[in-house]
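My hope is that you will study the record closing this message with an eye to the fold:
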Amino acid sequence: MIQKFQESERIFIPTTKIKNSTRTLEKFITENFELPDNNLKQINSFIKQDMDLENLIYDLPQLIQKEVIFQKMQIKFFDEFQDDELILEITVFSRLKIDEILKHEDAFIHRLYEKYPEKSADKVVIFIEG
C-alpha cells in the first residue's frame, strides 16, 4: 500500500520535446495581427515577460470576434507613453458607427479586467476604428 502511494506522488515529466513557445507566439501574432511597425521580436519579448498577458493575447482575437465583425487587427506599442511604460495597442478595424464603437471598447475593457489580472490587463489598450 505504501509503495502505491509513493508511486502516485511522483511528478510526471513528459518525454516528448516541448515546442518552442516563442516561435509559436510569433506565428500566432503574425497570423492574427498586422504589425505596422514591423517590431515582432520586441512585441513578442514584451508579451513573454507576463504569462497572463500571453494568454490574453491568445484569447483576444476570439474575444473580439464574438462581439464585433472586423476586417483586420493591428498590434503595436502604444506610443503616447514613455519607453519605461510600454503598453500594447490593439486596433480593430470594423464598420461600426461611433456610438457602437464606444460601447464595444468599454465592454472589452471590462471583460479584460474580469478575466485577467489587473497587472496584465493594464498592458493592453483596445481601439476600434470604424
User: Anything to note?
Assistant: The first helix runs from residue 2 to 8. Confidence is low (pLDDT under 50) at residues 5-20.
